[in-house]
Design a protein that fits this description.
This protein is α/β, with parallel strands linked by helices. The chain is built from eleven helices and eleven strands. The protein has helices spanning 3-6, 24-34, 82-86, 89-98, 111-117, 133-138, 163-176, 178-187, 201-204, 206-215, 217-234, and strands at residues 12-17, 38-44, 50-51, 57-58, 62-63, 73-76, 104-108, 125-126, 143-144, 149-152, 155-158. The strands form three sheets. It has a seven-stranded mixed sheet, sandwiched between helices. Strands 3-4 form a two-stranded antiparallel sheet. Strand 10 (149-152) and strand 11 (155-158) form a beta hairpin. It starts with a helix and ends in a 13-residue tail after the last helix.
């Protein structure tokens, strides 16, 4: 049975931007939630497979030039390649263009930095991966919030990687209502029970957090530098990170 047969009617048009070094789960988590109700467009510069930062690759379905103009959801995943994406004029121009007509402008993990670099989060609250909040603040004009999913009008952003599944359900509730989002959660049996309670700095403790921070140091430092350059170009001021720690 096709997924379209499960929920007949108008399907959402979802544009998911690909770039080299994106994190597969950042994209596949939300896509698994939304796929029952949408047409997913995997968008990239060319139709060549786009490598993720974990070694797998995803084949685009359409190029930036030919992507649908009126999207219900415009989405950007994060990943170790997001710093390069923040500097990619083709990606930034595409996001700025499609954001004019997209109903919801969204991201998971460091995808919010790419949205911010495109100027699409100014005046909004937003989330990102816990190690990248300084970079998000440095973009200027954005209010970073340490929550797993942040909904601010038609901007929906999420924390790191696995937060994408929560994001998918929260976004679906915004677009199609809570009842359908709850039904979808049941259908995909999203009933998380992690074997360890160390998924956020608050719960992991200082030793593990310091180790993870060191591993992310290069990514975070480069992201901060790129963000400051974008901020200086626009003449914006950084925002203070809100101390809401529910990631």
């Amino acid at each position: 049975m096709e997924t379209s047969e499960l929920f007949p009617g108008q399907r959402l048009e979802v544009g998911m931007v690909l770039y080299p070094g994106f994190t597969m789960l950042d994209l596949i988590g939300p896509q698994a939630v939304l796929a029952l109700h949408s047409n997913s467009h995997f968008i990239a510069s060319t139709l060549a497979p786009v490598p993720s930062d974990g070694g797998g690759a995803l084949v685009p379905t359409v190029t930036f030039a030919d992507a649908p103009r009126d999207l219900d959801i415009l989405f950007v995943p994060g990943g170790f390649g997001s710093n390069a994406a923040m500097k990619d004029p083709e990606i930034l121009a595409f996001l700025a263009d499609r954001a004019r007509t997209a109903k919801f402008i969204t991201s998971v993990c460091s995808g919010s930095l790419v949205l911010g670099a495109a100027g699409l989060l100014e005046g909004y609250r937003a989330a990102t991966h816990w190690v990248l909040y300084d970079a998000l603040a440095a973009l200027g004009g954005i209010t970073p919030v340490r929550e797993r999913v942040v909904v601010d009008r038609n901007r929906v952003t999420a924390g790191g990687v696995t937060a994408g599944v929560d994001f998918g359900h929260a976004l679906l509730a915004q677009v199609r209502g809570e009842r359908l989002a709850r039904l979808t959660q049941l259908m995909i049996e999203y009933d998380p029970a992690p074997p360890f309670d160390s998924g956020s700095p608050d719960r992991a403790g200082p030793e593990l957090t310091a180790q993870a921070t060191a591993l992310f140091h290069g990514l975070a430092t480069e992201a901060l530098t790129i963000a400051q350059a974008h901020r200086d170009k626009r003449g914006r001021s950084p925002r203070i990170v809100e101390t809401v720690n529910t990631v």
